[in-house]
Design brief:
The complex is a heterodimer of chains A (650) and B (53). With 650 residues, chain A is mainly alpha-helical. Chain A has 27 helices and 7 strands. In chain A, 52% of the residues are buried. The longest helix of chain B is centred in the middle third of the chain and has 20 residues.
């Protein structure tokens, strides 16, 4: 499908979000007391969740194909009538009288530069490993199957997939470019939401500066341009916090229902959304009239957020598979056992949570993260940038100066929810990667800048604050330019999709062979996660820590059992991406071979498999920094093996 | 408007920065330097790339 089709599909999906969101808000009986632009972004935010929610049921019912998903979008678009008819309050006095000056145009120009950067990323093929592993791979898999299938794989298979459902719609209607344009557009919408929320507290230029800071945040640049869900989950997190605050302020049941919907969408997009929903629910109990609010919140939360948990529960007995496996005392099964659970906890959690969970580290985590420490939390190049550090003393000064007024601020409840989420998230012992905090980042950023800007209204303090923000913007825009250069090269040089992928995906060479030599009757086993989206024939991803159907833990050494597992899954070929000697067309001796390499070698030795093709494999530590010559690219050889029955001695 | 025959001769003097303001400027400068140091490898690579092209 061409670029016109991709743009058309993206706009249709966008319109469906606006329309369905407007319909839901109308159903909740909310007179949104908002400026028209605020009504529009609120509608889009709700609609993003609503389309993702509805697409699940369409997909589970066997409608994961273009026509049913097209009809879904058309139905969603019906609500546009409500948006067009909606009453809107007039812009506030400050908005009406604020003239655009040179600073305004400068900021708008810089925002346009940032948006161009993300457009370049969107117009190139996807290259982010996690996106290729499952954010984009699962929608592609579901569309190929015509329905949503259960994926018996922890972390990347049983995660809630509300946002990936919207990727599925985009992919079905407009192909790959529609999907990447859609992720770009939803990232932009998060920026629009940040601007409109900030605008309630700040003048135009401060709001634009804040939006620029958000859009160029490294985690946003990286996440919005890929299939990572956190930037889009931020839309739900901000919506839930604002609706919770509005429910407490007005005691309107409709706002509590809206908070429940947003919290539910967040929970259906990410496991940590459950923690956020719990915090919002607790905050709603703060003032009298709580039973009605709690009921509305609970009903909306259950409707909007439960589908993926029920889906997991039906297939595994654990709604949050495998988090509650031990707590629920589930028996061993083909997909998970107590031994696997022990291995998973010892291996995966230890790697994901390098910081001790105690009060000292709770307090120091943001400061360490600001300077990218430790490396395992991925806070350096895909972190939150220098803003928080640069603006910190201004925010502290403002917080102290306005300490008696802070509790009454409209931002108090949303910020309380954000801090509550941080505390519960940190205490939960889950993955400590910094980007998991991205959903609450807009709330904290807005609060930070609002307090700092108000305190710095005196010119003598405003200058250093402007300098601090200028430095942060310069650092972040520079980072975005380095990141986007790889994609700009693709667009400017006229490089083919195939060449781009070969340059950016280390084990891409075998994918070409697999897609051209294997058929729908074959099934290939692979262990490099980024190949999930790229392999066009049936495939199985065998992660050593996340699944058990093909046991590749280090202690797995029974080639006969390995072969039995492969045959039960219908595997016909194995992709091994290390340890091959191309001259001998055989495995070479290596000091510590991995499980797949070792077991595959044993299959070849027992005449149960043979090497049918060998390939050069590159290992790219960083796609971005590779271009600067900073990260080495190492080379080795891999192979595709075909299983054989004739002469097999196992 | 007619100019005064005896214009005032007072000169505008900038107010001395307070300790808070000096501290804020030091923080901003120090923070910037810290980030330059943190990403010195990226900056060096970028400079080499730009210089070489």
């Amino acid at each position: 499908m061409g670029i016109a089709g991709a743009v058309g599909a993206t706009l249709l999906l966008c319109a469906a979000c606006f329309g369905s969101g407007a319909a839901v808000i109308t159903l909740l009986g909310l007179p949104p007391n908002m400026h028209r632009s605020e009504q529009a972004i609120a509608s889009f935010s709700v609609g993003l969740g609503a389309i993702g929610w509805a697409a699940f049921f369409v997909g589970v019912s066997g409608g994961a194909s273009p026509m049913p998903l097209f009809v879904l979008c058309l139905v969603g678009c019906g609500g546009l009538v409500l948006l067009a008819r909606a009453d809107a309050v007039s812009p506030s006095r400050s908005r009406a009288t604020e003239a655009a000056g040179a600073t305004t145009w400068l900021l708008l120009g810089l925002i346009a530069v940032a948006l161009c950067g993300s457009l370049m990323v969107a117009l190139a093929p996807p290259a982010d490993a996690d996106s290729l592993a499952y954010h984009f791979a699962l929608p592609k898999q579901f569309l190929a199957a015509g329905r949503i299938e259960f994926v018996p794989r922890a972390v990347t298979g049983t995660a809630p997939l509300l946002l990936q459902m919207t990727y599925m719609v985009a992919l079905a209607l407009g192909g790959e470019t529609a999907m990447t344009l859609w992720t770009m557009l939803t990232g932009w919408m998060a920026g629009a939401l940040v601007y409109l929320v900030a605008r309630r507290f700040l003048g135009r230029d401060w709001s634009l500066a804040l939006t620029l800071l958000f859009l160029t945040t490294p985690a946003v640049v990286y996440g919005a341009g890929s299939g990572q869900v956190e930037v889009r989950a931020a839309i739900f997190a901000v919506g839930a916090a604002l609706a919770t605050a509005a429910a407490l302020r007005t005691n309107r049941i409709g706002y509590a229902g809206l908070a429940g919907l947003f919290a539910g969408f967040f929970a259906a997009a990410k496991f940590t959304g459950l923690l956020y929903a719990a915090i919002c629910g607790i905050v709603l109990l703060f003032r009298k009239g709580w039973p009605g609010r709690a009921l509305a919140f609970g009903i909306a939360l259950s409707i909007a957020g439960s589908q993926w948990y029920v889906w997991n529960w039906i297939h595994t007995g654990d709604p949050t598979f495998p988090v509650l496996f031990h707590v629920l005392g589930l028996p061993d099964s083909a997909i998970w056992t107590q031994a696997m659970e022990d291995w998973f906890r010892a291996h995966y959690y230890a790697a994901e949570s390098p910081i001790p969970v105690d009060l000292f580290h709770f307090v120091t985590y943001p400061f360490r993260a600001a300077f990218g420490e430790p490396a395992a939390i991925e806070a350096a190049r895909t972190g939150l940038g220098p803003v928080s550090v640069m603006v910190f003393p201004f925010a502290i000064g403002g917080a102290w100066h306005y300490r008696r007024r802070i509790a009454a601020s409209p931002l108090a409840i949303p910020v309380l929810i954000a801090f509550g989420f941080y505390a519960v998230w940190f205490a939960s012992g889950t993955s400590q990667r910094l980007r998991h905090l991205l959903p609450i980042y807009p709330l904290l950023l807005i609060a930070l800048i609002v307090v700092a800007a108000r305190w710095s209204e005196r010119t003598s303090r405003q200058r250093p604050l402007i300098a601090a923000i200028t430095v942060a913007v310069a650092v972040q825009l520079g980072g975005q330019a380095v990141f986007a250069a790889n994609y700009a090269r693709y667009l400017v040089s006229g490089e083919s999709r195939d060449s781009f992928l070969a340059r950016n995906i280390g084990p891409y060479a075998p994918v070409r062979w697999i897609n051209s030599h294997l058929t729908a009757q074959d099934r290939v086993l692979y262990t490099d996660n980024e190949l999930g989206y790229l392999i066009d024939v049936p495939a199985y991803y065998a992660h050593a820590d996340f699944q058990l159907l093909v046991d590749l833990r280090p202690q797995a050494n029974d080639a006969g059992r390995f072969l039995g597992q492969l045959r039960s899954l219908g595997i016909t070929h194995i992709l091994v991406t290390t340890g091959i000697d191309p001259a001998e067309n055989a495995f070479r001796q290596t000091p510590n071979p991995g499980s797949l390499q070792r077991l595959s070698h044993d299959l070849v030795a027992a005449s149960c498999a043979r090497i049918v093709a060998t390939f050069p494999i590159t290992r790219i530590a960083s796609r971005t920094l590779r271009n600067l010559g900073l990260k080495p690219v190492t080379s080795e050889y891999g192979a595709v093996l075909a299983l054989t029955r004739q002469g097999c001695r196992l | 408007m007619i100019a005064s025959a005896h214009p005032t001769t007072t000169t505008t003097r900038r107010a001395r920065p307070t300790l808070t303001e000096i501290a804020l400027w030091l923080w901003v400068g120090g923070g910037f330097a810290a980030y330059l140091y943190e990403f010195r490898d990226v900056l060096a690579g970028l400079a080499a790339r730009l210089g070489g092209s």
